[in-house]
Design goal:
The protein is mainly alpha-helical. It is built from 19 helices and three strands. The chain has helices at residues 2-26, 33-62, 65-88, 94-114, 116-132, 136-142, 150-162, 164-167, 187-202, 209-228, 232-250, 254-273, 275-285, 296-308, 331-339, 341-364, 368-392, 410-445, 454-457; strands spanning 168-171, 174-180, 183-185. β2 and β3 (183-185) form a beta hairpin. α3 runs parallel beside α5, α10 runs antiparallel to α11 and α11 runs antiparallel to α17.
């Protein structure tokens, strides 16, 4: 009976996710405020229904009361968080708020299915971080001096990255973690935020070659530290963000071409110098010949995706635990196995919807500093999604990068929540700028007599 319920519910999930994914793009169509509100309300209903059905299936599988308690706690948390944002920040992006909650819900569902204790830990981290970052949009809106801290961003970032050489620990072949008692942090996840602020502050003024050169040297120091830590996924992410922000600030394609050439050379050197890079490359190029060893993880990932097919095995009906590190790096494979490839494609579309919304915010905001910050986070977000999904599907070698807001990992989810809160702040700045422009236009068009414009009087 449970198998029938689990499999049957998958069709509901696919339809709901497809409609939600479609709405990620229809919200950008010209419409009235009333139509937009209806779309946002529909998105919110879909994600709460999805949440309810998923946890219902998980409960029927085990009849574990803890699952019901966790579900109720999550439902109350999401409803309260949405209520807070709508009342504290009436000009916030509700689209972005819905996407944040829906991606978190998918992550909580999968983690509860894989490891209840890990899901509980992730929920606690998300709950604390969500209320802490409530202050971020306010800071972004009021702190006009942020662009003056350019060197402070860079120096603090480098110090935090280098701290792992003193108090760091090694995990999964990379020395990029700091253990502070029971708490483990990955500094690179938070430094990427400071790194983007550094780049935006450096490239905010009219860009000359000397300024780009100095910025490139400082950025190279960040990347070099990450390479020494053997965090090559993080190094690649930082490098790509730097290249695209240089292009966005100058409009010169030479930076992109030079970046591609430098990246190719760096990849070749990394293959020669680092054994774990060669291991990942070999596992990517021909995992089937080494399926019992280095190719085991990627082959199990491909087996899971293939077994799920278009419509999935059904929640709780797959074998995702056969994939090593499935809770973090390879959680997309577990989603594809149990929810289906169709659902997984819809999930990718939701990520693309977030990316498009980020780009829209970047294009709409007038301040050059905020524009570069928004562009930086747009590239950082979507490239991280690409690295994770590309790695688990054998499109590119695995880099050990997490899936934003879904994968297990306190540092990853906390840094992503900060990024989303920053984007909310920039969206509110954009909204405020639009209101000021409208007021100026009304003032300039109407004279005291109501007929002569200010321009005509002058």
């Amino acid at each position: 009976m449970l198998n029938i319920i689990s499999t049957g519910s998958n069709y509901i999930f696919m339809i709901m996710c497809a409609i939600y994914a479609l709405s990620c793009f229809t919200v950008f169509l010209p419409s009235t405020e009333e139509q937009q509100i209806k779309r946002m309300n529909r998105q919110e209903r879909f994600m709460f229904i999805f949440h309810f059905i998923c946890y219902g299936v998980l409960f029927l599988k085990t009849f574990d009361v803890r699952i019901l308690i966790l579900y109720v706690a999550q439902a109350v948390f999401f409803k309260f968080l949405i209520f807070l944002y709508e009342h504290l920040y009436m000009d916030c992006s509700r689209i972005l708020m819905n996407h944040t909650c829906f991606l978190l819900i998918i992550g909580f569902v999968m983690l509860t299915r894989l490891d209840f204790e890990e899901a509980l830990k992730q929920f606690a981290i998300v709950a604390v971080c969500s209320f802490v970052v409530l202050a971020v949009p306010f800071i972004m809106e009021k702190a006009y001096w942020l662009k003056r801290l350019r060197w402070i961003y860079g120096l603090i970032g480098l110090l935090l990255l280098a701290s792992v050489f003193v108090i760091g620990t090694t995990k999964n072949g990379s020395t990029n973690w700091i253990s502070l008692g029971p708490v483990a942090l990955q500094p690179s996840e938070f430094v990427k935020i400071a790194f983007i602020f550094f780049l935006a502050a450096m490239l905010e003024k009219p860009v000359s070659f000397p300024r780009v050169f100095v910025t490139a040297l400082f950025s190279a120091c960040h990347v070099l530290v990450l390479i020494l830590e053997r965090d090559l996924g993080g190094a690649l992410l930082y490098f790509v963000v730097f290249i695209f922000l240089c292009y966005a600030s100058t409009g010169r394609s030479i930076y992109v071409l030079g970046g591609v050439a430098a990246g190719t050379l760096a990849g070749r050197l990394a293959y020669i110098l680092f054994a774990h890079v060669r291991t990942r490359f070999d596992a990517w190029s021909d995992p089937w010949s080494i399926i019992e060893g280095r190719g085991y993880q990627i082959t199990q990932s491909l087996f899971a995706i293939g077994t799920g097919g278009w419509f999935g095995m059904g929640l709780t009906q797959g074998r995702p635990s056969d994939i090593p590190v499935v809770e973090s790096d390879f959680i997309f494979s577990a989603i594809a196995e149990e929810f289906g490839v169709f659902f997984a494609i819809c999930l990718i579309l939701i990520y693309l919807g977030v990316f498009v919304h980020f780009l829209q915010i970047a294009m709409d905001v007038k301040g050059r500093f905020y524009k570069l910050v928004a562009y930086g986070f747009s590239i950082c977000f979507i490239f991280q999604v690409f690295l994770c999904i590309g790695g688990v599907t054998k499109f590119i070698p695995s880099t050990g990068v997490t899936l934003p807001l879904i994968s297990s990992g306190g540092s990853s989810v906390a840094s992503t929540l900060i990024i989303f809160a920053i984007m909310q702040g920039i969206f509110m700045i954009t909204y405020k700028e639009d209101e000021e422009v409208e007021e100026d236009e009304q003032t300039s068009e109407i004279s005291p007599e109501g007929t002569i414009s200010r321009q005509t009087n002058q």
